[in-house]
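Data's thin. Show one?
=====
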Amino acid sequence: MSPVASSAGADTSLTGGTSPVDLTSRAQVHDLVVDFYREIVFDELLGPVFEEVAEVDWAAHIPRLIDYWCRILFGTRGYVGQVTGVHRHLHGLEEIRPEHCDRWYLMWAAAVDRHGEGPTADHAKGHAASLMAGMAKHIFGYDWVPPEAAA
């Protein structure tokens, strides 16, 4: 059976496939972000925060998230926003607890691992950990370190 290119750019087949390639394009970031937030919506801990508390307009939010991650990973322009201000407002509506941070980070790291492998994918995970640690300390009011990903 011939391999088929996945959205992450890796060759896959019904018999196993290969590891994902590194994140190198906006299209890959799009697929990563959509995959990640599709899981968030159905998560029993995080879903209600996004759907009921933040009342996220996904049609508007997803393109902004793609712009954000493209800026972080590739240095492209396009993202305009205040990440900390939005989360400060959300924390005022409902307390963001360490278990929220843990779940978000572990889900993000798993999504990145599904979509890319290499320096840019590692940067996506490292930046997410730093961002969450900074928000936890300066907005949510506690020290947070990323949990170990399940093996």
Q: What stands out?
A: Strands lie at 4-5, 11-12. The chain has six helices and two strands.
